[in-house]
Description:
The structure holds two protein chains of two kinds. By secondary structure, chain A is mainly alpha-helical. Helices cover about 80% and strands about 5% of the residues of chain A.
Amino acid sequence: MTSEWRAFIHGIIAVPLLLAGLLFAVYGAETGSVGAQIAARTPLLLTGSSDLSSLSGGFSANIIISFWAMLLSIGFGCILAVGLIAETKMVRVPSEILMNALRNSPWLVVLYAMLYLLPFEMTLFGSTFFLSPLVKSVIGLSLPAAANVAEVFRGGIESVASGQWESARSLGYRRLQILRHVILPQALPLMTPNLMTIYTMLFIGTSLVVVTGTSDVLSVVRVVTGSDGAHLATGLYIYVLLLFFLFSFPIAIFTRSLERRVRAR
Amino acid sequence: MSLDFSWLGDSLYQYWLLRGLGTTIVMSLLGIVLMLVIGVVGALCLHFKLPVLETLTTVLVELFRNTPPLVQLFFLYFMLSEAGLTLTDPVSGREVPLFSGFTCAVLSLGLYNGAIAVEIIRSGLLAVPLQTVEGARSLGYTPTQTFRFVELPIGLRLSLPAMTNNVVSLIKTSAQAALVAVPDIMYGATQISLETYRTLEIMMLVWVLYVALASVAVLALRQIGNAVRIPGYGVRVS
């Protein structure tokens, strides 16, 4: 049994126990009734609908947002990374400024900026799109993540030996062809653990989309505390902590074992 | 699109922004102190493999690292405000809640980034050369003394680069305190943007303020790193 497996088993058992103990410490004799109330609201918290009919709200919205934001940020990060390793200063310096600007701004600031900067609806190629808060939060989250992705890509590309560039060059490849056919296949395995760390970070960051008015898990918690009483709030937040933990902890452990395997190579 | 910064001339807005800046700085500094204390204590528990505390530290670190700081903040805010402890303000003589939004924000920042600091300091301690530790042991230092006088000072220096990232992340995370109505920069900025609708300009200013704060922190840590550098030991902050 590897050390990651042991850490996983420990964490996945101990953390829920710890949170359950916390719930008991807060509510004492009422734990049972509070637990029953939370259990009754679980479908709402998980999917945003009380009968599991749609997946557009609650915790599943967080997962969907993180997924789309990751896809977008990989696309945008790739372009930014190509700019970062460009030979001409005209391209490299602006990309570096953009990357540092996005990396150093708090995610909340970017989200707020996107919330008010992106238009309510926009017309592209003659068809009108409605930009829902969900779309805005996906874009807002993907921007800072893209800067991190670009940094990882640059690191991965630079870790490939320069002889690879030169020999591909002598075979007549162009710059983007070298990147696509020679460098990326070698760099991708090195970058995967870092990309997964960024995904975990992004997933944890989706809790911030509550400010955009998306019906994510925290807005559902607000609705439930509004309808069922404020004394539930602590229990509900413990529950949300557990949900986030159960999703991102396995990814974190998997990342760690992957990292070890990559480093051992 | 033309930029309009005329709202900056309003003295009320200036007051909000300055107050926010002060709050953010104080909150970040307190958070950094708490983070360091938690980091050192946690790393100590892991390093000496203290029977129960080691498992507890590992579990808490996993919990805090893998959950959103925002949810931790809300959780602390609701749990502690429900506990309802108050203390008497020595200036005004009024009863103020002990766990205000500000206290909870500092606590959540300290806990979330402290959990990361535990890992950072632990890997710093692991990077201390074995020969140095053995040398200290052969000079007759007890394990505690070795930790206090040899491993911790070198380990903390070695963890400085990673700690710089963590401090910057703490300053960035502190923006979410606005969501529990702590009057920090972000709170002032949202207030102003609700009144003036100049969101782009305000967010640019906020961004500049946060980048400036982070840069000051990076520069300060670099100064500290250079000041405490052990000559010839190869411990250098880039």
